[in-house]
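Annotated sample (chain length 207).
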Amino acid sequence: MSVLLGRKAPDFTAPAVLGDGQIVDEFNFADTIKDKYALVFFYPLDFTFVCRSELIALDHRVDRLKELGVEVIAVSVDSHFTHNAWRNTAVNKGGIGEVKYTMVGDMNHDICKAFGVESIGGDSYYPAGVAFRASFVIDKSGVVRAQHMNDEPIGRNIDELVRVVEALQFFEENGHVCPAGWQKGDAGMVNTPDGVAEYLAGNSEKL
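Output written by the structure step:
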């Protein structure tokens, strides 16, 4: 996996199914996320198992992410037509239902390669050629501020991704850094020796 932290997220144009069900041939990433936060959510394949649970969990939290100004974009190497079929299949029939975020088809694998998340097989559980289970939180200037990746059998915690966005926005608004386990509503930490000492004096037992 490439380390994109602190760098501009790669731009791309690809076919996609939008959150309203519209199919487009040229979804442009940079235009879509301009002046917005973004979550780019790679997953291995449509009509699989852990992926299905993750995409449904993501949809359950998409309204909160939208409240935070986050554009949610899911990407796999499947076609936009396969995405559409999965989206139009009911959850109790093995589908994900009409999820409210964009699903991009990376059929030529260019997006996976640009983000450094294409599997080459080997000792991982991933088959070669699919996207890793990888997530990128991107700020309003298009810079990657967090990236996470799990091996194929291990589903992601979508609440943690929401928390990371909230922590990023808290830092941007207050200038205070977010200590271990920070949750929305918690105090931050002034990133000076005195600030750290003051925070730990009142909070170290909670860590």
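Annotation: The two ends are 30 Å apart (CA to CA).
Annotation: The CA atoms of residues 96 and 198 lie 47 Å apart.
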